Amino acid sequence: MKNIRNFSIIAHIDHGKSTLADRMIQICDLISDRDFKNQLLDSMDIERERGITIKSQTVCLPFRASDGQDYSLNLVDTPGHVDFSYEVSRALTSCEGALLIVDAAQGVEAQTLANLYLAMENELEIIPVINKIDLPSAEPEKVAMQIEEDLGLDGEMIQYCSAKSGKGVQEILEAIVTHLPPPEGDPKAELQALIFDANYDPFRGTIISVRIINGTLKSGDTIRFMSNDIEYRVEEVGTYRVIRREEKQLTAGMVGYIIAGIKSIQDAKPGDTITHRDRPAASALPGFKEVQQVVFSSIYPISTDDYEDLATALEKLQLNDAALTFVKDSSAALGFGFRCGFLGLLHLEVVQERLEREFDVSLILTVPSVRYTCFLKDGSSKDVDNPAYYPDPANIERTEEPYIKATILMPEKYMGAVMTLCIERRAENTNYHYPTPGRIEFTCEVPLAEVIYDFYDRLKSITQGYGSFDYEILDYRASDLVKLDILVNGERVDALSQLVHSKNARARGLHACEMLKEEIPRQMFKIAIQAAIGGNVIARTTISALRKDVTAKCYGGDISRKRKLLEKQKAGKKRMKTVGNVDIPQTAFLAVLKSDQK
Question: Do the first three CATH levels of 4-179 and 482-593 match, i.e. the same topology?
């Protein structure tokens, strides 16, 4: 056990976690140069295209240190985006140490701080690493000062590297062996194994990633999950060497996988403890916090025949993504679907893209909303995350909405624009300080509903990409909420209904009407698009009708002949309007979600 090191790589988005993992894999000769590709641990197409990590990935690196000893380094590569911080928290519970990577050009950013606090909560030993030192704009001395002053980490421990070229990576591996503690545990004790991830394999069933805390596990053992008392017989155990490699056994301190013919997706709960059936552990390991969904949206298949396929796809996706929740839902306009909970807008986008790509299901998504609490006049309360279930306003005493504490790190020159954006979004208790000269850390309390709409895109635009954003949920506060309905040709489209603050209702309604006008194709009759609160229409646009020139063949003669033809056409259009249906294309639903301000 003294030659095992379990560590994680944590950092802000795009500071070079996956690239550093690639170099480590190459230095440890885990894969031949011919088979190597960049972002080796990012297995999904969507991760490669966007250049982001979504799933935590594990790999076991064999490393011979300068003292001549062979070490086994278990690396967990984690996501950097704020939406996937639950992946980071799960990965950190299986480690003793962490590499905290900071970009030599960008410096300490919002997620750097958030991930550092997560690592400290888990009492991990931290090695700071300054990456991208070969960039022309790199300022490693300045960033080292930030790490010492802002983060309070030891300046002597800082490692310098360029993950792209491989410079300094060997020294980082030596530092891991020297500074990080080996795992503790007793291989002869009762088995306690922590599930920190799970993947679905169509041929082998659920493959569980575990960290063995105490005891020994080998194929043929009968195991029991402590949360639900379900028992399985282990078929195979092994370690991750980019591909799965079967081992005779896993002992205390090791990170590896278990295949046990687990068919039900819901059985392998991340955070659960596995023990032996015949020699069980006295207690389960302390789990980590339940994941809190903050954004809700309904997903419907475009074709009702795809409903079963969508249900199966969501179940399979939920195993790889423990934070996704869904319940059945139905809509008058769109038929049967599912109401899903997400961690944020990027998470929603990723789930939508994965459903369409990996499972070939065409989808319509409703406007995202957050979970509000309505206190009714009869003394009861109701949680509402779907506008369809919003109670009658006459019965509501007050409504409360979730607030977040937003932390924005940015260069000083963007302060005015960012402050204006936050105040537009109903920010309160704004505060700022200068962690280093020229950089501002700005904090404010803002309703979550204002952030999920398009806040992150706007922030990146006005700070020219230099602003970084992180948030944590605070509490619920009273709000003046209204339900905004969109009517097309007099018919309410329930998929476009949204709950908004009364101050923003007209602007949001006008934006939705304008976007729908551009996306809905013209018909043979006029189409009115309206935004309404209750019975009051607060915004309207009209799509003009396609017209046939009925008077083209009517040369000369009395004007009444032309008028008669036009009147006949008008009566036909009026009749068509009463019976005509307007098909709303999927692009129209997506257009309503997009911001009108760039």
Answer: no
